[in-house]
Amino acid sequence: MNVDLTGFEGETERMRLRPYAFDDHDEFADLHGRDDVARYLPWQTRDDEASRMALERHQALALEQNDDGVTLAGFDKDTGRLVGEFVLFLRSIDHRGGEVGYVLHPDFQGRGLATEGAAAMLQLAFETLNMHRVIARIDARNTASAAVLRRLGMRREARLVRNEWFKGEWTDEEDFALLEDEWTQQAHPRLTWRVPGS
Q1: 46 — phi, psi (to 5°)?
Q2: CA-to-CA distance for 45 and 192, rounded, in angstroms?
Q3: pLDDT score at 38
Q4: Within 13 Å and on the Cβ side, how many CA atoms surround 137?
Q5: Residue 164: helix, strand or coil by DSSP?
Q6: N or C end of the chain: which has fewer CB within 10 A?
């Protein structure tokens, strides 16, 4: 697989999706600098310097080998504000496997935007990248994220009990998954996009 999302421009019903630019630093730092955002995520709340380093890592936009990931920032169409970010990892070339993730600013929670953005990433995974199976892994305490995954049609396949030492305590993990043929049987809001060279 060799997919590069540099220059990607996407649009859902309420958001514009694109790669992060360095000019997005202030909004990126606001999102990543919040304790309530980082609570269930595999990184600590970031200060300004850590945010700059993370934003630089987010400039990687190619899916070429196992565990490569791409992040698209979602911006509210009405206000232009950063809603959050939506991530797709290539987990296995041989098995056409991926993983989806998302981070939403608390100001935009409760409006279905996480579902809307994650559905766009699943559409890319299954319809553009020809993935067979996409998973999502969450902290079992994150019931709001579990609800998002269920709305996407993903099924919970496992609960791993106290499997990870996470931010000072043993925590449970819930694993969800969706297959390509299951995706095609469901109706979802459509993502429109442009990928240069495609």
Answers
A1: -100, 135
A2: 33
A3: 92
A4: 12
A5: strand
A6: C
Residue 79 has pLDDT above 90, yes or no: yes
Residue 135 phi, psi dihedral angles, 5° rounding:
-110, 170
Q: Tell me, what's the pLDDT at 195?
A: 58
With a cut of 60, say whether residue 197 has pLDDT above it: no
150: left (phi over 0), alpha (psi -120 to 50) or beta: alpha
**How crowded is the C-beta side of 181, counted as CA atoms within 13 Å?**
0
pLDDT of 124-148, one tens digit each? 999 989 999 999 999 999 999 999 9
Strand partners, 9: 194
- 145-171 pLDDT, tens digit each: 999 999 999 999 999 999 999 999 999
Burial class, 82, CB count within 10 angstroms (exposed 0-12 / middle 13-18 / buried 19+): buried
For the cut 90, the answer to whether the pLDDT of residue 186 exceeds it is: no
Taking the C-alpha atoms of residue 91 and residue 69, their distance in angstroms, rounded to an integer, is: 9
> How many CB atoms lie under 10 A from the CB of residue 133?
19
Residue 43's pLDDT is what?
87
* Cβ(182)–Cβ(153) below 8 Å: yes
E-strand spans in the chain?
3-4, 9-11, 15-18, 62-63, 69-76, 82-92, 97-104, 133-139, 155-166, 169-179, 192-194
